[in-house]
Amino acid sequence: MVIPPRPQTSMKPDGSGARLVIREIVATNFKSYFGTQIIGPFHKNFTAIIGPNGSGKSNVIDSLLFVFGYKASKIRSKKISVLIHSSRGHDDINSCSVEVFFEQIVDKDDCFEVIEGSEFSVSRTAYKNNSSVYAWNGKTMSIKEIAGRLRELGIDLIHNRFPHLTG
After folding, report:
1. What residue ranges define each of the domains in the chain, with the CATH number in brackets?
2. Which of 38, 42, 62, 158 is most buried, most CB within 10 Å of its CB?
3. Which of 58, 90, 66 is nearest to 165 (CA)?
4. What's the rounded Cα separation, in Å, for the pair 97 and 161?
């Protein structure tokens, strides 16, 4: 058994210092989401995704897995093009995308402060031909480059520490 190295983080063991949070997710024609849907803003400490069966709760997690480079089979699909929204009257959509917006914050007594200039986004766009493109702040990059940048910020995509999937 190999234990991966601990990721770097700017947060101190006592909970002080900066930490990275997801501010919002913007999904466009992704799975059950037709058009552009803004999911968030998320709470700085805890967010619960609730709703009746079939309302798209799992698609929120799937959108994160999609952006972070998971294969279609891990996103409950046979191929990446199946993630593109398709419904009656909307069967001619050629792509879907998800963009996740991050920011670093410092906790204060009853609030938090966003560290100026710390905001960034990671996105992925999938096409009907089963290809996809990743971007960091709108600039096209490989998933390997994005994984390296996220690792520097404490998100380890390589060792799969961040997603906690249930169900």
Report:
1. 18-152 (3.40.50.300)
2. 62
3. 58
4. 24
Burial level of 89, CB count in 10 A (0-12/13-18/19+)? Answer: exposed
**Residues ≥6 apart with Cβ < 8 Å to 2:** none
| Cα(167)–Cα(154) distance, integer angstroms | 26
d(CA 157, CA 150): 8
Residue type, 57: K
What's residue 3's pLDDT?
67
Stretch 11-20: mean pLDDT, rounded? Answer: 68
Q: Which pLDDT band, with edges at 50, 70 and 90, does 9 fall under? A: low
Each residue's pLDDT tens digit, 30-81: 998 899 999 999 888 888 888 888 877 888 988 999 999 877 666 777 788 8
- Both tokens of 41, joined, read 């803003």
Q: What is the pLDDT of residues 108-140, one digit of tens each?
A: 888 889 999 999 999 999 999 999 999 999 999
Nearest to 101 by CA among 116, 83, 123, 117: 123
